[in-house]
Structure formats: structure tokens, C-alpha cells
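Methods — Computational structure assignment.
A single polypeptide chain was analysed. Its primary sequence is given first, followed by the predicted tertiary structure written as C-alpha cells.
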Amino acid sequence: MSIDNAVSARPNTWGMGGKILVKVLLADFCCLVLVVSTIFFFTYQWLLWVMELICLSILIAFIASPINNRGHRDRGYYERNHLKPDKLYGLKAGLIAALPFYVMTILAVFMTLGFLPDYFFFYRILNSFFWPFISIVVSTAGVYDFTWYFYVIFFLMISVIPVTCHIAYTLGLKDIVVSDRIIYKKNKKEK
């Protein structure tokens, strides 16, 4: 085994999922500060949409970069060792990172059914990157009058995390850097 192969060995999926979870929690804290500092603007519907776009951008920016870098490093690792790449690595790591948020949504279902006390305010705090969207969809502070489609929407919102991880890792494996494509556009020469 050469030193080049040992240096860039890929961490297991649980380790990368844990790293992404830390990034998601940091994004959650940043979005919480942003949402709490601007909560008095929540009377305007269009500002809620703007805030949701900002919070979603923060979440995607926090999780896309590390998993994209992992994809770039794994590309070299797979090429040097002549291995077939694990194309679902980003999706698996994203699902591991999103698992606590899926569990919180399942607990919210139990709150609606009456098995647990109604702590939907804490659900909003722990999912602060979706707080503006939750405020658009749900007009109440509790879960006592939720219908089933609210939870489908919540599961789809949380699915942004694994989908972003999968897309970012796939772009990294294909050696595509989106920021370079946007910033450094190739000049087309006319003949």
C-alpha cells in the first residue's frame, strides 16, 4: 500500500453523516438567530417567503460544501485504486444527518395523536431553517388541529438535506464545481 492511497482514504458513511449533522445544526442555529431577530416581520406573507429562501440558502450552503469536497477527494481515491465509486454515499450520509429531524417529525405525529404533550414550538426551534415555511403552512402554534398532509409536507421539507448531500457529492465525483462554472465563464471565441 502506497502512502498516496493511505492519505485520502474515505471516512465511513456514519462519520460523514455525523459531520453533516454538525453542519446542519450550525445552520439551524444561524437560521434561528435570523428568524428570531426578524420575527416581527412575520405579519407579511411575502417576507415569510423571502425569509424561507434565505434560511434554505443558509442550510444548503452549510451542507453542500463539505460533502462536495468529499466527492472531489473520493474521485481521486477511486481513480488511483481503480475502484468503482459508491454513488449513493452522499445520499446515505444525508439520510444519517436528517435522521434526528425525521424522528422529531414522527414525535410531532405522536403529539397530534395525543400520546405526547404539545411542544410544537420546540419543533419549530429545532427546525428553524423551515420556520418561515411552517408559519406559512400552519397558522396555529400547536398541533391539535393538524391533518396528515402537514406531516407529508414536513417530511418533504426535511428531505432537502439528503437530496442536497446526494447532488453535492455527485457533482464532486464528476469534478464539477458550480461556483467555478458561475464565476469563471469560458469566453467563446468567434471564428
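Note: The CA atoms of residues 36 and 100 lie 22 Å apart.
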